[in-house]
Design a protein that fits this description.
Layout lengths: L3 E12 L2 E12 L3 E5 L6 H8 L7 E6 L2 E2 L5 H6 L2 E4 L11 H8 L8 H14 L1 H5 L10 H13 L5 E5 L7 H16 L3 E5 L3 H7 L2 E6 L2 E7 H5 L2 H7 L3
Parallel strand pairs: 3-8, 3-9, 6-7, 7-8
Antiparallel strand pairs: 1-2, 1-4, 4-5, 9-10
Helix pairs in contact: 3-6
């Protein structure tokens, strides 16, 4: 049985008097694609930001590769091998594609120059469109290309786990398909993926397992293919 890469135990987060998460429990095993689905305001992004310790937790524990990271500094969490690709891409528009990729290596100070060159080659193999635009400014790329750059930059630190927050947001359907194919290729490279996605049908179709989050509570969990045909999930998230 695969080991836990990430474990969340009884996590609660409040924003002032507003409860964002209530006693949520999740596990992500080595080599899995796990998706977290739910409506706007359900707490999906808060969950991811809690893992990276970018928001204050009310209670609970988060472990990564068997080590307690609940109160660890965000930069140390990154250096342990956890990459976070936030919603909205957050690339550096004034830097070239190549420079954006190089910035991604700052998360792993142990990388040698040769390893960095290998990672850039791997990024260009995975994202051929970025190779064509290597000297272009990040801000001049299309939305889909910027999303590819954000994911590629996250992979440049050679993480064990990559978290993707709404990678398909605002993209044309044909580009969305391309992004999801890339996510499966990333898993095939030996990476573990935690995916937040409003496109529930696409996310569940590639996920090993999924968690349904509603108003800060996990209401359902199961294999991706099972949740895809679950009547409640179909009604609430798949328009059926």
């Amino acid at each position: 049985m695969a080991e836990d890469m990430l474990r969340i135990e009884n996590l609660s987060v409040n924003y002032g008097y507003i409860t964002a998460l209530t006693d949520i429990n999740m596990e992500v095993k080595n080599g899995e694609i796990i998706t977290l689905i739910g409506g706007n305001g359900a707490g999906k992004t808060t969950t991811m930001m809690s893992i990276s310790n970018l928001v204050e937790k009310t209670s609970g524990k988060i472990s990564f590769k068997g080590q307690d990271i609940t109160h660890m500094a965000p930069d140390k969490i990154v250096k342990m091998g956890l990459a976070h690709v936030p919603e909205g891409r957050k690339i550096f528009p004034s830097l070239t594609v190549y420079e954006n990729l190089q910035v991604g290596t700052l998360g792993n100070p142990k990388l040698t120059k040769g390893e960095i060159n290998d990672l850039i080659t791997r990024s260009y193999d995975l994202f051929p469109r970025l190779k064509e635009r290597t000297t272009q400014g990040g801000g001049s790329l299309s939305g889909g290309e910027q999303q590819m750059l954000a994911i590629a930059r996250g992979l440049m630190m050679d993480p064990d786990l990559i978290m993707l927050d709404e990678p398909s947001l605002g993209l044309a359907p044909i580009i969305v398909e391309e992004i999801f194919e890339l996510i499966m290729k990333i898993r095939d490279m030996g990476k573990t993926v935690l995916l937040i996605e409003q496109n529930a049908s696409m996310a569940l179709s590639i996920a090993d397992r999924g968690y349904v989050l509603e108003t800060g509570n996990i209401t359902l969990t199961g294999k991706g293919k099972d949740l895809l045909v679950d009547p409640e999930v179909k009604r609430a998230y798949l328009g059926a």
